[in-house]
């Protein structure tokens, strides 16, 4: 059994490039790390290669490539020693039959984008649409924050206004989360079976053109601060909407 011991190995050097967005975009591949993400990727048939620390038991159905610790660490974005790294194929499945949609407008923190994807999957969202200035879903920090949800929920980068208007023509009601003079309290929101929710940038909120595009703006009733972290606000809004459908 061959073990890769050198960080200068040609294959390792090529895979390490996937830590950069340009290489991920060019190859349509990305790296994942940790046994849980490996398991979720394999369930979704997205796992293409496995790099495993020499001496560990292989948890997958693929033939692993055994590596020394320093080699695995070259493929890792984390500061602690890595045990298992996977190479995955980006999803390219078309989005179909979207009853509940989530729209992310310029959410730029990778951790927030990842947590929102995890939350969306947990609360039954069918598809997530991201503006092109959102953080990269395949950023290592985003991937870790999804806890594997990115393998199970469709998402796409798109022009949000065009996409929202297309859904509205099909009968979807779209709600924007915003502190706005015409906003209604979230508890007074009773969406139809088919609805969409827009959440916005960490500092600036949702762009005005998207607020104007929405059927209604809503706000989360609070006693102290006026705003919440966007991932937390998304979780509250999705939970409330899912349990308040008209």
Write the layout of secondary structure elements.
Layout: E1 3-4, H1 10-16, H2 21-27, E2 29-33, H3 35-43, E3 47-53, E4 65-67, H4 69-75, E5 84-89, E6 100-104, H5 110-122, E7 127-130, H6 140-146, E8 155-157, H7 160-169, E9 173-177, E10 184-185, E11 195-199, H8 208-213, E12 216-219, H9 230-242
Parallel strand pairs: 1-4, 3-4, 6-7, 6-11, 7-8, 9-11, 9-12, 10-12
Antiparallel strand pairs: 2-5, 3-5
Helix pairs in contact: 5-6, 5-9
Short account of what is shown:
With 246 residues, the chain is α/β, with parallel strands linked by helices. The protein is built from 9 helices and 12 strands.
Q: How would you characterize this protein structure?
A:
It is a single chain. By secondary structure, this protein is of the alpha/beta class. 32% of the residues lie in helices and 21% in strands. The protein contains nine helices and twelve strands. The strands form two sheets. The chain has a seven-stranded parallel β-sheet with strand order 8-7-6-11-9-12-10, with helices on both faces. It has a five-stranded mixed β-sheet with strand order 1-4-3-5-2. Helix 5 runs parallel beside helix 6 and helix 5 runs parallel beside helix 9. The longest helix is centred in the middle third of the chain and has 13 residues. The protein starts with a strand and ends with a helix.
Give the termini separation: 61 Å
Elements, N to C (H/E): EHHEHEEHEEHEHEHEEEHEH
- What percentage of residues falls in helices of 4 or more residues? 25-40%
Structural class: alpha/beta
Largest sheet: 7 strands, parallel
Mean pLDDT figure: 92
- The amount of beta strand, in percent, is 15-25%
Spatial arrangement of strands, main beta sheet: 8-7-6-11-9-12-10
Rounded to an integer in angstroms, the radius of gyration calculated over CA atoms is: 20 Å
Low-confidence stretches: none
Shape: elongated
* Oligomeric state of shown chains: single chain
Strands, total number: 12
